[in-house]
Fold:
Amino acid sequence: MWWFQQGLSVLPVALVVWSAASFVFSYITAIVLHHVDPLVPYISDTGTIPPERCLFGIMLNISAFLGMATVYVRYKQVYALNPEKPKIIKLNKIGLTLGLMSCFGLCIIANFQKCILYYIHVVGACLTFGVGAIYMLVQTVLSYLMQPELHSKDVFWVRLTVLLWSCSSIVSMFISSVVLYSGRYGTDLVQKLHWDPREE
Structure:
């Protein structure tokens, strides 16, 4: 039996594969219909104009549901393995709350497009990426506290590596967005989906 066929371990696999597919399919649709330029558009730009907006929204809503299911299963797993450790129980409840908030942020991103309600879209991104990074931090700390009885050091190091990679991606995205929307490259960039080669 394959590892992802055991129990509910198929949930995180489905979450990653489905989420990646939602970004790839909306990107391909936006490129084929010439709604965005093919060279590295914002993910949000590929889900702005119909029909890719509809595809983007539906697929990300399913990703949010898979994310909530994954977060809940992880919560129950940690609870079942550590029923009497108050520090782990408290961190686990915090993790559940943060994970569900992050998934709610993904629903906001899916349903409030960047070009229509920009600030709501940004709130959703902050919930998804910012609160999601804090969720990953909590899970990393839990992995550290649960070793060596329940987790190996390898699980802790893998989670720590993913956390650091995610945080560096968030910082890079934040800096790029601040530079882009600083006013140096023009106004009304939120609505802009195509770039003129003569522009900076």
